[in-house]
Amino acid sequence: MTITRRNVLLGATAAAALAPIAARAQTSEVVIGVTYPMSGANAQIGVDAQHAYVTATDIINNKHDFELPLAKDAGLPGLGGAKIRLVFADHQGDPQKGRAEAERLITQEKVCAIIGSYQSSVAVTISQICERYQTPFVSADNSSPSLHTRGLKFFFRAAPHDEMFTKAMFDFYDALKKKGTKIETLALFHEDTIFGTDSANAQIKLANERGYKIVADIKYRSNSPSLSAEVQQLKSANADVLMPSSYTTDGIMLVKTMAELGYKPKAIVAQAAGFSEKALYDAVGDKLEGVITRGSFSLDLAAKRPMVGKINDLFKAKSGKDLNDNTSREFMGLIVLADAINRAKSTDGEKIRAALAATEIPGEQTIMPWKRVKFDELGQNNDADPVLLQYIGGKFVTISPPQGAVAEAVWPMK
Amino acid sequence: MTAETIIQSLASGLLMGLLYGLIAVGLALIFGLMDVVNFAHGEFLMIAMYASFFLFAFFAIDPLLAAPLVAAALFVFGAVVYLLIVRFAVRAKANAGMVQIFSTFGLAIVMRGVAQFFFTPDYRSVTHSWFGGKTVSIGGIFLPQPQLIGAAVAMLAFGGLYYFINRTDFGRALEATREDAGAVALVGIDKNRVFALGWGLGAALVGLAGAIMSIFFYIYPDVGASFALIAYVTVALGGFGSVFGAFAGGIIVGLVEASTALLLPPSLKSVGIYAVYLLVVFVRPRGLFGSM
Amino acid sequence: MDTDFAKRRRRDLIVAFCLAAIAAVVPLFVKDSYVQNIMVLTLMWAALSQSWNILSGYCGQISLGHALYFGIGAYTTTLLFTKFGVLPWFGMLGGGLISALIAMGLGYPCFRLRGHYFAIATIVIAEIGLLLFHNWDWAGAALGIEIPVRGDSWLKFQFARSKLPYFYFALALACVAWFVTWWLEDSKWGYWWRAVKDNPDAAESLGVVVFNSKMGAAAVSAFLVAVGGSFYAQFVSYIDPESIMGFHISLLMALPAVLGGIGTLWGPMLGAVILIPVTELTRSYAGGSGRGVDLIVYGGLIIAISLARPQGLVSLFAPKRKEATR
C-alpha cells in the first residue's frame, strides 16, 4: 500500500468521524462518555461512579440552589440550555478495552469529551486515544502521577495525584514531630499493581528526602487468599506508622489478619483506596478506631458549606452511601468538564480543551477542600489540596491541613 | 528473621493449608468419580459464601451453624448442575475433555454474572460471629479462631469422607462406578444417580468450606477466582482423584506459600507453590498420591 | 481416500484464498473505526487460536498457558523499541524466536505429563511468568510500558487513527497461521499425530519421533503466538503484565478453537468470527449497566455451544465429511 493511498483513507476516516460532531454543535444535547469497570473485580467502583455522575448530571440539567457552576440553571446556558447526556461504557479494567470503548464513544456515540476511569492503566490508553481524536479526557479519579507528565494536550485532572497526597501525609508527620511526637520509622504495605507501585514510590521518595526510615516495604499480590506472612513481617518491623496502599478486599484482610496475629500498629496512615470505602468499615470498622486516611473529600466541609451536605444527600438517595474519596472526585470532575463545555459554547474538542485550560473555579464553588480548580500546562490542578481524615467514633473527621481541620489528631491510634 | 516469625508463619500456613485442602477436596472427589474437572469450582465457593452471608444477614444464623445448611443447599446445587449441564458434557462423543472444561468454565462466567445481577458487586462481610476476629495466643504464637475452626472442620470432613467412601453402601457404589461405569449398570446401579450424588457431595464439601471462609473472608462475585487456581494446583499436586492427596496437597500448599513469603518478596509467594507443583509432577507425573 | 483427501485440501486452499481476498476489501467499505477495531481483534484472535490449535488441537497437548508466549512477544518488541530503539519488526522476530526456544525448553519436561496435569502445568508456568514480569522493575513492573507516539509510520508500525495497517497485518498473520496448519495437516508430523490419536498403541512405536514432532509443534505455535503478542503491543501501544499475560489471554486463545472445532483447520477461524464480535458487542451495549448481563450472555453462549456442538461449530458446515472433523 502506498503512502498516498493511506493518507487519503486516513483523511476520509477522519472526516467521516469529525463531520457529524461539527454538525451537531447546535443541538440541545451534550453527550459525554463515561468509562469505568462495570463488571469484574472492580465492578462496585463503576456502579458507585455511575451514581456520582448521575447526581452531577441532575444538578447540571435541573435548577438547584447551590453555589456550584451550572447548578442554578437548567442545562448549559452557553449552549442554549442544552442538557448533558451521559453514555456509560464498561472497560473491565483492561487497557485494550478502554481504548476500544473510548474510540467507540468518540466515533459512534459522538461524545464531546470522556471522563473516567478508575484504573490508571486504562487511563493511559484512553487518554492516548482522546489525544488522537482531539477529544478532552478528564481524569476524575486516577491518581498515578505519571499520567499528566506524558505531554498530552487533551488530558486534564482536577484532583490530586499520589505525590500530592503523599506530600500531605509527610507534611502532617513533620508537624506532629515538631510538637514532639516520635515518628521515625515507617512500614509500607502496598499491592503489586500500578496504584500500589506509584504510591510506594512516592512514599519512598519523600521518606528519603525528609529523613524517615522505612523499616519494612511489603509488596503483596492483590486479592491474596491470605496475608498472614505479610502481616507477620509488618509486626516484626513494628514501625511508628503503617502506611497501606490497598483496595477494599486486601484492606479488609489486612485489618482482620492484624487483629488475628495480635498486631496493633501505633498509627495507620492509608493511601485512601480501600480505606475510604464503606464496605471496609462495615466489615472491620470496629478495629479501625483512629485510622487516618488521605482523602480528596471530607463531609466536615458541610458545616462550612451547606451545599456539600445537600449534594451528599442527593447522592445518598441514589446509592445508599455517603460521598467518598472516589465518588466526590467523580462528581467534581463532571462539574468541571461541564463548566468548560458551557464556556466553550461548543462541543468541538479543541474549543473545550481551550476552555478547560482556562478553567478558574474558586474552591468555595466546589464540594472539595481545594483552593481552586486551575490547570497547569500539563493539565494538572496543583491547587487541589488533599486532606487527612481520621476515623473516630464511626465517622471521619478532618485533622489536616490545619486550615481545614476540625479536630486534633488522636495519636497513637485507638 | 526470628524463630518466632518462622514458627508463626508456618503455623498460619498450616491452618490455611487445611482450608485449602477442604476447598479442594470436592474437586478431587468429582474428578476421581468421573474424570471431570469442574472449572466453576471457585464460583461454587462464591455462592456458598453468599449463602452463608445471607443466612447471617437475614436470620442472624452464625456461619458455623449455617455450615450444614449451606452444605445441604450446595449439595442440591451440585446435583442440579450435574443433571442440567455436566451430564450432557460427558456424553459428548467428540472432545469430551474440552467440552467439560469449557461448559463448566461457561458456567463459572454465568454464575459471576448472576451473582453480580442479584447481589450487586458490593463487598460483603459477616460482621459478627462466635469466632470471627478472635484469636488464641500460645507462647507468642497467634492462632486465629476462625482458621482453627476451619482446620477442625477440614479434618472432620476428611475423616468423614474417608469413612463414607470406604464403609458405606453409597461410598462403595461411588467407588465401583468410578472403576467401571458400564459394569455397575448390570448390577442395577443407576450411573447418573451416582454421578449426581457425587456432584452433590463434592459441592457440599465446597459449601462447608464456603461457610467457614465467610467468617473471616470478604465476599463478592469474583471472590472465587482467588481460590480456584490454588484449588486446582492442590488437587493436582496431591494426585487427581485422591481424597487423601487433596488433604496432603492442601497442607503442602499452605506451608510452601508461607515459607516462600519469608524468603522472597511476598508478591512472589505463589511462585513457590507453582514451582513445587512443577517439581512434583516432573518427578511423579501423577502427583503425590494419584493412582490412576 | 487419498484422492478425496487431496481434493479436499485443494478446495480448502481455494476457499481460504477467496475468503482472504474478500476480507481484504471489507475495510475499504466499512469505515467505522469501532467495527474495524472488532475486525482487527477478530483476525488477531483467529490467528492466535489457530496457532494454539497446532499444539493443543492437532497434537492434543491442551495448553492453558499460551499467554506466556503472547506476553514474551509483546514485551520483547516493546522493551527493544523503548530501551534500545530497535524497530518493532526485529522485536517481533526476536520475541518469536525467544518464545519458540522457551516452548521447547518447557516442552521437554512437560510433554511427559498427561491431561489435566499438563494443562495445570501450563497454567502455572504462565502464572510464574506473569508474576516475574509483575516484579521486574526494569521492564516497568506493574506500571507497564507505554510505546511512545512517533507519528504514523510503517517502519515503527504505529498509526494514530487508521486501523487499516493493523487490519492487514492481522489478516496476514491469520493467513500465515492458517497456511501453516494446512501444510502441517498433510506433513508427516500431521500423519503421526493422527495415527497417535486414532490408535494409542501407535504412540508407543512412534514414541520418539512423536515426541520430537510435538516439540516442533510447540515451537511453531509459540512463535506465531509471540508475533501476535508483538502485534497486540503495537496495536494497543501500552502493555502491562496483567492485561498481556493474565490467564484470560490463555483462555481467549483456546475458546475460539474449542467452540469452532478443536483440531480442525477451520474451527479457530469460525470460532473467532463468532465469539469476538459477540464479546465486544455485549460488553459495549450491555456492559454499561454494571449488572453483569454481558457476563451471563457470554457464559451462556459458551455453555450452549460446547454442549450442543461438541465437535465445534465447524461441524455444521461439514455434514457429509465425517473424517474432516474427526
Describe what this molecule looks like in 3D.
- The complex is a heterotrimer of chains A (414), B (292) and C (326).
- With 414 residues, chain A is of the alpha/beta class.
- Chain A has 13 helices and 14 strands.
- In chain A, 43% of the residues lie in helices and 16% in strands.
- In chain A, strands 2-1-3-4-5 form a 5-stranded parallel beta sheet, with helices on both faces.
- The longest helix of chain A has 21 residues, at 3-23.
- Chain A is globular and about 60 Å long.
- Mean pLDDT of chain A is 88; it is low at 1-25.
- With 292 residues, chain B is mainly α.
- Chain B has 11 helices and 2 strands; from the N terminus they run H-H-H-H-E-E-H-H-H-H-H-H-H.
- The longest helix of chain B is centred in the first third of the chain and has 32 residues, at 3-34.
- Chain B is globular and about 60 Å long.
- The mean pLDDT of chain B is 88.
- Chain C has 326 residues and is an all-alpha fold.
- Chain C has 13 helices and 2 strands, in the order αααααβαααβααααα.
- Chain C starts with a helix and ends with a helix.
- In chain C, helix 2 packs antiparallel against helix 8, helix 6 (164-185) runs antiparallel to helix 8 and helix 11 (267-286) runs antiparallel to helix 12 (293-308).
- Classes of the chains: A alpha/beta (414), B mainly alpha (292), C mainly alpha (326).
- At the B-C interface, helix 3, helix 4, helix 9 and helix 11 of B face helix 5, helix 10 and helix 12 of C.
Summarize this structure briefly:
The complex is a heterotrimer of chains A (414), B (292) and C (326). Helices cover 43% and strands 16% of the residues of chain A.
What overall geometry of chain B do the principal axes of the alpha carbons give? globular
Q: How much helix is in the residues of chain C?
A: over 70%
Topology pattern of chain B, helix = H, strand = E: HHHHEEHHHHHHH
Tell me the strand percentage band of chain B. under 5%
Largest interface: B-C, 50 and 50 residues
Radius of gyration of chain B: 19 Å
Record the SSE blueprint.
The complex is a heterotrimer of chains A (414), B (292) and C (326).
Chain A: H1 3-23, E1 29-36, H2 43-61, E2 83-90, H3 95-107, E3 113-116, H4 120-132, E4 137-139, E5 155-156, H5 162-178, E6 185-191, H6 194-210, E7 213-220, H7 228-237, E8 241-245, H8 248-260, E9 269-270, H9 278-284, E10 292-295, H10 301-304, H11 306-319, H12 325-344, H13 349-357, E11 361-362, E12 372-373, E13 387-392, E14 395-400
Parallel strand pairs in A: 1-2, 1-3, 3-4, 4-5, 6-7, 6-8, 9-10
Antiparallel strand pairs in A: 10-13, 11-12, 13-14
Helix pairs in contact in A: 2-11, 2-12, 3-4, 5-6, 8-9, 12-13
Chain B: H1 3-34, H2 41-59, H3 63-91, H4 96-119, E1 135-138, E2 141-144, H5 145-167, H6 169-179, H7 181-186, H8 191-216, H9 225-238, H10 243-263, H11 269-283
Antiparallel strand pairs in B: 1-2
Helix pairs in contact in B: 1-5, 1-8, 1-9, 1-10, 2-3, 2-4, 2-8, 3-4, 3-8, 5-6, 5-8, 6-8, 9-10, 9-11, 10-11
Chain C: H1 2-29, H2 33-58, H3 67-84, H4 88-110, H5 115-134, E1 145-146, H6 164-185, H7 188-198, H8 200-236, E2 238-239, H9 241-245, H10 247-260, H11 267-286, H12 293-308, H13 322-325
Antiparallel strand pairs in C: 1-2
Helix pairs in contact in C: 1-6, 2-6, 2-8, 2-10, 2-11, 3-4, 3-5, 3-8, 4-8, 6-8, 7-8, 10-11, 11-12
